[in-house]
DNA sequence: TTGTACGCGTTATCAG
DNA sequence: CTGATAACGCGTACAA
């Protein structure tokens, strides 16, 4: 079955391509009623559907937003994607999602691919390894929004969690419950990723504010597959932490694994709080106290920023949009 | 910054467009070395990137596969998507993922959108509400593969779990452990979705084979938000089940919620098995016995089928490719 | 070995 | 009110 084009419709309706095009774009201002009907009928009979690719070429707009997530394995990523999708869909935009797997190389490749595909804008969870590429995008005045992370000296708006606050909420909660020897484990060691840095920074700061000691042995940044060993090192020493903050959902899983394997009781032997409100937090034994990110709002904000920019609304490109975390108090601390 | 086109490159390198095109497509057979260098340099200096949209229009191929999932909330969906992405990426294909939210209307809209976007093929988790549309695709000989579900009388290959076997594994395991009053809860009531039907069918069949009674009160198909009530009805009667099979991950979450709220002990008061191996199965208290789907293999198969079809390899369109589930025995039964 | 000319499907412009 | 024509950016016979 050959594709039916606008030319076929025009032929069948005995009008010219342009007239059909007018019809399709609802410019009936001066169109004869019977012409309209003939076209309508021809389209119907032939089952004609406009070719978006051809239209995009002409219009220089694909109504598509590219989204590059650093790591799709985080629940945060999928939730944000859903929010972006919802919003874009509402405004007639499609999204193409790519997963950079935390590799700057891959990220760069995807950026190029998406540009070549002429997406109208880009939402990126930056891997921070492609500053030059980001700068090129800025120079070209290409619509880009960062989410989850920011990149210093790059004039691209960022949608971020108030990460220091997230750590602070946790530490303060630990402190209120009487825990004094508090540790933190985060991931994303290889690249200087903002959330990790800010969470550790906020962690230390909050310890000080709560008059608690900062013990460097209790502060670790590890790749996921090193976490079991790291936990062992941390928890099997004489003086070990009695409370542990998981820097994200993947770390939390590793902690729960360790705790299970070593029959450690939560929260009597070890209190636990996780950043990111995982789906099973409420049904786990004990239920898990978490710091929730407003994922939906954040995704929405990123999408709004991009679509606004496409309409040439003025956006402050230096701006960082911070969102506040909330502590969901359950039984694990 | 204006977009730089092949014409700009040609001008700069003092050659014609076609020569540049040759270069881009690596047809150097008869190209002068210095011409090559000039072009190379011009591309470099201008930062030229080919416009995929224009290329697609000419080549009538977008190197893009559309994926429509019925419900992105299932862990199964995301895992399958990752597998598809991996495979497609390897072969230079991109994917566009759409979430139909279990609504046939939405699914239909997405099918039309993806076709208009000229995707080269479609992988669909069918909602079963668009048989006519599917038939149109078949008639047009358009490359489509179904996954997770099948649709009767539609000649489209399907990649599916051996669902009856999944139920059988669970029931037999329950039986071996001495449970006799076994129930099942599934979702997707509104549409006649294959997995649910097959799982219930397999469930009943296995009960009979294990010489256990089939109690209709213990077999429920409910929308997610009705499950709490359903569990109440089922578990608060005199003679209630002592073992429960969760038809998928969402049902499992609901069961765990109920169990928590009513302080029911697993497995002494109620044994539980879930179809779909959720991430926290191994760290839950107790660890959860699950029936795992080979999600990666299934996604891979779907992707392979589509790409094969694009290369006009013969594929039996009547074929249903069944994948075997495996029981992961843990503590919840 | 390189250039010319045209087609892909759509839309904008402008003449009629 | 409608139609011819020229783009959009790329690829490819075919000619030179």
List keywords for this structure.
333 residues, six-stranded parallel beta sheet, six-stranded mixed beta sheet, alpha/beta, 16% strand, 12 strands, homodimer, DNA-binding
Oligomer: homodimer
The low-confidence runs of chain A, each spanning 5 or more residues with pLDDT under 50, are none
How many helices of chain A does DSSP assign?
12
Structural class of chain A: alpha/beta
State the helical fraction of chain A. 40-55%
Q: Nearest-angstrom radius of gyration of chain A?
A: 26 Å
Outline the biggest β-sheet of chain A.
6 strands, parallel
Query: How many strands appear in the DSSP assignment of chain A?
Result: 12
Which sequence of SSEs, written as H and E, runs from N to C of chain A? Answer: HHHHEHEHEHEEHEHEHEHEEHEE
Estimate the strand proportion of chain A: 15-25%
Measured distance between first and last alpha carbons of chain A: 64 Å
Largest interface: A-B, 42 and 42 residues
Rough outline of chain A:
elongated
Strand order of the largest sheet of chain A: 2-1-3-4-5-11
Average predicted confidence as pLDDT of chain A: 93
